[in-house]
Amino acid sequence: MTAPTDPADLTKFADPLRIPPTLRPGPELTVRLTSAEVQLHSELPPTPMWTYEGSFPGPTVEVRRGQRLRVAWENGITTPYPAQVGRLPAITAPPAENVPGIDPALLDPKAAALPAWAVTHLHGAVTGAGHDGWTDNAILAGESQLSEYPNDQPATALWYHDHAMGITRLNVNAGLAGLYLVRDEEEDGLGLPSDEFEVPLVLCDRNLATAPDGTPTGQLLFKTVGPLPFAGRYTLVNGGIWPHHDVRQRWYRFRLLNTSSSRAYRLHLVDETGQRVPDAAWQIGTDSGLLGAPTPLSPQGLTLSPAERADLLVDFRALGGRTLRLVNSAPQPYDGQPIGDTDPVGVPNPANRLPDPEVLEFRVAPDAEPDPDPFTLPAVLAQSYQRLSHQTLPEHNHRVLMLGRSPAGVFQLWEMAEVPDSEVPPAGTVRDGYVQVQQGTGPVRTYRRLSADFNDTLNWRVRQDSWEQWTIINLSIALHPVHIHLIRFQALTRAACDVSAFQQAEGGTTIGKPVTWDAETPIVPADQGWKDVIKIWPGELVRVAGQFTGATGRFMYHCHILDHEDDGMMRPFTVAPGAVMDVTGMGGMGPM
């Protein structure tokens, strides 16, 4: 353990890892949103929170594939918003938003008046739009949100969280998140570690208010600075700050989920000396299901941006009596720059919002012999898994999305349409919303922005059961993990772009000087599986493809950095039966 050195420090690895309660419901379930006091660390006073069923994270809901479930999300919260909300006037070095406490004069007085206005979204679920948790359809205390989930999708780890318009980051920060597991026969047949050997690891970061003497009061503090999104000092796993977990000498399955507002994690398993532990961890699944085959954890670590999940197996059989740590090496904000395979990890980096890289400690039992363990790592996981490529895709439509930034510095989602050559502005000019792109020595294509704000005109109407490929280009300076509701998809292409031609102040590129890219970047194994969130690094092009099947209605896609989402980085799309679209003439796609 690391002893605290100042009033805001807490003893690391002092408390055991908590496991959220599990609910295995019948056809109907009631989940109550309620206030609770949660002990985040044994050295802290209890923390007031908003929770599902009094638990933080909420209970893990577990269902079988095809088991239709009706959930009544009952809002029973009557207490004031439980966190302080404030903003620092300027960026400081080292970044002061990581420091617990804030000058009371910098608190937002309006935050204390926030009601418990909430709507629950089952992230990754294939469900009708009326049950998806539309962001404006939040409910107040005393009301219920009724949702129906068919659960007709492959085994995976979904999660549920608040999605209220404009305050998602605050409601999730207050505690409204939980895990939701779908099981199926394909997963059953693998004999994966289960029961006590299957462990959820729900990660997030938080900050805390302090008393006049500098000691944390236990109250949550959502503190930001300038344009930077929230970054908290303390790392929590399953609702506890820097816990430890006792394990035996055998295989374990860990279901990882990043519920942070903005913090990305690059996770490594290290030993007592801080050296990376090789050949012990294997990834077997991504956001939306199992991979085709296990892939060893890279020396580069496992990167999870907000809302991403990973299904990991760890073999502790040869590690008896050892103390291992899960550590984070990602600075905040993280731009995807790699780390050397032999570079030190688990090193404090306070100048880049990583003062405490520790996440979790594993204490392996010192038994003379490993446990009898019937599990053997299979060579094949999901027989149903098939890697997509543009060449093997069924007939599909194309859309172009650009991740832009307004002259005022607000991140936006730009839906684009290709401009005919006859309508291209004159060479050498810059037109707001016009962006040119070019791959290698190929043709220059000119695109015009159709929308940027959530309330702009609805443009994207999707034919039910159709396949689509979305080309997403990040023109901005920040990572954006893009989440598309309703569907799962695969990444087909990654490429580093030269976006220097984009003029943020003018909102476009100089005509004749396009955004360019050449060779594709290899897609790492962790991003080759089925996803519902995809990381788009600054200056990167990513193509994703998926089928819009299983439901109809109006859905959303958005950046899952919740600060960006709440600032308007979210857009609607609709899915309708093909016959309806044919009669009404809805639709409209373009090539890319």
Based on helices, strands and strand pairing, what is the structural class?
mainly beta
Which blocks of ≥5 consecutive residues have pLDDT under 50?
588-592
CATH architecture grouping of the largest domain: Sandwich
CATH superfamily of the largest domain: Cupredoxins -  blue copper proteins
* Major beta-sheet overview: 8 strands, mixed, barrel
Total helices: the number is 4
Tertiary shape: globular
Main CATH class of the largest domain = Mainly Beta
Evaluate the radius of gyration. 24 Å
What fold name goes in the CATH topology slot of the largest domain? Immunoglobulin-like
Tell me the total number of β-strands. Answer: 39
How much strand content do the residues show? Answer: 35-45%
What count of domains describes the coordinates? 2
Question: Share of helix among residues?
Answer: under 10%
| Mean pLDDT rating | 95
**Terminal-residue CA separation:** 54 Å
Taking strands numbered 1, 2, ... along the chain, how are they ordered across the largest sheet?
A: 25-26-28-27-35-32-37-30
Explain this structure to me?
There is one protein chain. This protein is mainly beta and 592 residues long. The protein folds into two domains: 343 residues, Sandwich (Immunoglobulin-like); 189 residues, Immunoglobulin-like (Sandwich), CATH 2.60.40.420. An eight-stranded mixed beta barrel has the order 25-26-28-27-35-32-37-30. A seven-stranded mixed sheet has the order 15-14-11-17-22-19-20, with no helix packed on it. It is globular, with a radius of gyration of 24 Å.
